[in-house]
Design a protein that fits this description.
253 residues; alpha/beta; TIM Barrel; eight-stranded parallel beta sheet
Length: 253
């Protein structure tokens, strides 16, 4: 079975008002969206529940983060159980901003991933290297180390609920984007690692999506790469061009 194309929109700490969010969602609700693409949007957490009432049914919701405990004295955190109870199906974990700004280690990200999957959430698991690491030729090593922390804790069956997002840190929010060849090489290496570390079947079936300054202008070429199964979109997910990114495969085809 071919892997279903996946496009996620990570709104990050945007927008700053319900009215702005309504405008963003109105564009998606009225658009002609590719029915063969799985679409997920991740607004700030306080907008998740009201957004369920207004977004069209085929667009799923994701939290941008969660903690690895079900409940307790963890001020400011959201638990996987709370997301499941609110019928939020996805969570983004390990985003580079969480790793760099909030000092989340790969071990913490792995613990969060286990907790999320145990609670029956699906996980968008982010990996990626910095510019310094890429220039030092360490891309594959860095990404594999980030993945290995999860591999060490997950069961083979868990991977059916994981989407891997390769997001080179040097391309996030910078306007720089990996070339289609760079993206394909990184995705192919991730798939090879999964084949060796987990199983060939998991490697073949796991969707690996690209993130890092994805726009309507560059998404079509990226989408033609055999191991690029979609996108995790940042800034462009707040703009009308997000529709073109969702439809990248259909437009290209």
């Amino acid at each position: 079975m071919p892997r279903q194309f996946f496009v996620g929109g990570n709104f990050k700490m945007n927008p700053t008002s319900q009215g702005q969010l309504d405008s963003i969602i109105s564009v998606l609700n009225s658009a002609d969206l590719d029915s063969t693409t799985e679409i997920v949007v991740a607004p700030p957490s306080l907008y998740l529940i009201p957004l369920k009432q207004t977004v069209r049914q085929e667009i799923q919701l994701s939290a941008q983060n969660c903690f690895y405990k079900e409940s307790g004295a963890f001020t400011g955190e959201i638990s996987p159980a709370q997301l499941v109870d609110s019928n939020i199906p996805y969570v983004i974990l390990g985003h580079s901003e969480r790793r760099s700004i909030f000092h989340e280690t790969s071990e913490i990200v792995a613990k969060k991933t286990v907790a999320a999957l145990t609670a029956t959430l699906k996980v968008i698991f982010c990996v990626g290297e910095t510019l310094e690491e890429r220039e030092a030729g360490l891309t594959t090593e860095v990404v594999q180390n980030q993945l290995q922390a999860a591999v060490s804790h997950l069961q083979v069956t868990d991977w059916s609920c994981v989407v891997i997002a390769y997001e080179p840190v040097w391309a996030i929010g910078t306007g720089k984007v990996a070339t289609s060849a760079q993206a394909q090489e990184a995705h192919l290496n991730i798939r090879a690692f999964l084949s060796q570390a987990v199983s060939p079947a998991v490697a073949e079936n796991t969707r690996i999506i690209y993130g890092g300054s994805v726009t309507a202008a560059n998404c079509q070429e990226l989408s033609t790469q055999p191991d690029v199964d979609g996108f995790l979109v940042g800034g462009a997910s707040l703009k009308p061009e997000f529709v073109n990114i969702i439809n990248a495969r259909r437009i290209q085809g």
